[in-house]
Design goal:
Elements lengths: L3 H22 L4 E5 L2 E5 L10 E5 L7 H14 L4 E4 L6 H9 L3 E11 L12 E5 L7 H12 L5 H7 L11 E8 L2 E11 L2 E9 L8 H15 L5 E4 L5 H7 L2 E11 L3
Parallel strand pairs: 3-4, 9-10
Antiparallel strand pairs: 1-2, 2-3, 4-11, 5-10, 5-11, 6-7, 7-8, 8-9
Helix pairs in contact: 4-5
Length: 265
């Protein structure tokens, strides 16, 4: 079993790798790593979340003030804002520097982990969960993600733009899963395998399909799928909507990942 310190490191690395990957989804992208800090740029100017992001990849951000100064210069040259991910277990000085520098805290996401498979009761007859394998199928995932995340402030057009090149995210180390209800795409999630574990990203339910337990069904499916493919643990950063679902499935909070956003200057 993974010890907590090792697991926290793997969680951080999986999140950083997911940010790298999501920058690649939509070119032109830039990925720069220096002084144990990763800076990612994607083809959208949206400053929120992983698209234009800063995250530590070492044992702690060695110089928070210098990191923020570099980020402001780096993203300022590109005419865009950015998000700083703070790993609460090692980056508290970086969080304090973000607040002192006037960045807006947008989230305080619990970092959660699942260490074993979960029971998967039979699905209702109208529901089928499918793993997407071809470009022709991918609109189902995009439709769910665009409608689901617009509920928490991410414009649907940005999600559709980020996922407009499915050949860049239908990759062997990613798994994209959609629950269909009466053949309509209703809930979805993405698995990202790295560093011996799997991270769950982009969990969402279409507004018209909420209240039916479909997000829970998808989470059961992707969690067990991760273990089937050899993951030692499954990790995620929870939204307020998803956290109660994950806790009921057995995910446990082990840290926090506050996000701070700097608007375009």
């Amino acid at each position: 079993m993974l010890v907590d310190g090792t697991l926290l490191q793997l969680m951080d690395l999986n999140l950083a790798e997911a940010n790298r990957e999501q920058a690649r989804f939509l070119p032109p992208s830039r990925i720069v790593e220096q002084s144990d800090v990763l800076y990612t740029v994607s083809g959208t100017r949206c400053p929120g979340g992983p698209f234009n992001s800063v995250i530590g990849v070492g044992a702690g951000c060695p110089d928070p003030e210098a990191t923020l100064a570099h980020a402001r210069a780096f993203y300022g040259e590109l005419g865009r804002g950015f998000t700083v991910y703070v790993r609460a277990h090692v980056d508290r000085p970086l969080g304090a520097a973000c607040e002192h520098d006037g960045l807006s805290q947008m989230s305080d996401a619990p970092g959660m982990v699942l260490r074993a498979r979960v029971p998967a009761p039979p699905l209702p007859p109208s529901v089928e969960i499918r793993e997407l394998r071809s470009v022709s199928e991918t609109s189902a995932f995009v439709d769910v993600a665009a409608s689901a995340y617009s509920s928490i402030g991410l414009p649907a057009e940005i999600t559709r733009k980020v996922y407009s090149m499915p050949e860049r995210w239908l990759l062997p180390h990613l798994r994209v899963v959609v629950a269909f209800d009466h053949e309509e795409p209703a809930a979805a999630a993405m698995l990202h395998f790295s560093h011996g574990i799997a991270g769950v990203y982009w969990v969402g339910t279409a507004p018209s399909a909420r209240g039916k337990g479909l997000a829970t069904a998808v989470m059961r499916h992707v969690s067990n799928l991760a273990f089937e493919h050899g993951a030692a643990a499954v990790v995620l950063q929870a939204t307020p909507y998803g956290e109660p679902v994950y806790r009921k499935l057995g995910y446990q909070e082990v840290t926090r990942y506050p996000w701070y956003m700097a608007a375009r200057q």
